[in-house]
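Tokens as discussed.
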């Protein structure tokens, strides 16, 4: 008897669910319930990501959660559509439509989440380094963001079109041909763009450095996307394509040498010369930009009109203007030391000795 009652109840429930108005009501109630609980469900979707990101940076975790709220809401909407379709059990054509729409929403939500997280992480080089340990120059980030945007949007479009049964092989072939045509037409521009990426990424030189290449030498004043501006010693500005610089042998100076001769007059005594040499060595070794182990100050010879002192040292200044200022300050200090010691800097001179004067003649 009990078995008959259970079978009767199940049959009654099955008959009840065959009622279209009731199925509509149940579907509406479930969808409404999911809509009301969408924030809770969205939080459940992103909770694992929250725990992972919080291990690295709490501030970035909060920003990542905010970026993922909209994709999570799309997933909740896809869940509501799936449950509504399962309850209503429409005809095959409508079922196929809802299945494709649900899949598109899921794919769109995932792609949107990836897109938003990528834009968040690649927002600044500091943030990218904190999360991945990769050090990227700030000027490369716009190029990276643009490339990632194109890749993500293209992949999303292709996947969603395939989900709707659209053959994308022709579209992919067309994009390939168009890309080949563009690359051939803009070959020089693209090579300069890759050259810019190489210069910024590998840093063969930086702005302000004095460089020497087979074609040009001077101070680097600006590195642009297409070209680099270099000011030559004659003050003329030369614009060099980045592709040329990226493939050229570039001589740069990690340190610069100060090398000069100082001549004092022959009135200088040996003791004065010794004291002068010691003061010059002390001057150079105490300067913060001078590499102390490279300092060399020696009495190097007897010149035609001076006692010669050779001075050598390297400075840790790569910027050309900073180097010129440092050398200028050293020269001025040398002049002050010579003046303080009561010595004189020699200059080329010729002494003429007359042994006898010719006898004067009177008329």
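Sequence:
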């Amino acid at each position: 008897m009990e078995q008959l009652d259970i079978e009767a109840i199940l049959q009654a429930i099955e008959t009840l669910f065959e009622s279209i108005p009731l199925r509509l009501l149940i579907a509406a109630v479930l969808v409404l319930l999911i809509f009301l609980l969408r924030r809770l469900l969205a939080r459940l979707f992103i909770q694992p990501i929250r725990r992972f990101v919080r291990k690295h940076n709490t501030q970035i975790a909060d920003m990542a959660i905010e970026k993922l709220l909209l994709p999570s809401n799309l997933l909740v909407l896809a869940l509501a559509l799936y449950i509504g379709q399962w309850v209503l059990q429409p005809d095959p054509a409508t079922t196929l439509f809802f299945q494709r729409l649900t899949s598109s929403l899921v794919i769109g939500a995932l792609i949107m989440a990836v897109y938003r997280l990528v834009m968040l992480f690649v927002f600044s080089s500091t943030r990218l380094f904190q999360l991945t340990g990769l050090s990227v120059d700030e000027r490369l980030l716009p190029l990276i963001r643009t490339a990632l945007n194109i890749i993500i949007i293209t992949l999303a479009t292709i996947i969603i079109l395939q989900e709707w049964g659209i053959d994308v092989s022709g579209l992919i072939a067309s994009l390939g041909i168009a890309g080949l045509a563009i690359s051939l037409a803009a070959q020089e521009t693209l090579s300069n763009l890759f050259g810019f990426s190489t210069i910024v990424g590998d840093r063969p030189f930086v702005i302000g450095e004095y460089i020497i290449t087979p074609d040009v030498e001077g101070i680097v004043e600006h590195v642009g996307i297409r070209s680099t501006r270099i000011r030559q010693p004659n003050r003329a500005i030369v614009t060099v394509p980045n592709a040329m610089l990226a493939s050229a042998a570039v001589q740069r100076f990690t340190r610069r040498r100060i090398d000069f001769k100082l001549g004092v007059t022959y009135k200088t005594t040996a003791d004065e010369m010794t004291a002068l040499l010691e003061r010059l060595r002390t001057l150079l070794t105490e300067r913060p930009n001078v590499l102390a182990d490279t300092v060399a100050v020696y009495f190097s010879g007897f010149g035609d009109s001076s006692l010669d002192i050779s001075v050598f040292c390297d400075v840790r200044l790569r910027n050309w203007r900073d180097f010129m200022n440092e050398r200028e300050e050293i020269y001025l200090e040398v002049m002050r030391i010579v003046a303080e010691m009561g010595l004189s800097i020699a200059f080329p001179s010729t002494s003429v000795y007359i042994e006898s004067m010719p006898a004067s003649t009177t008329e």
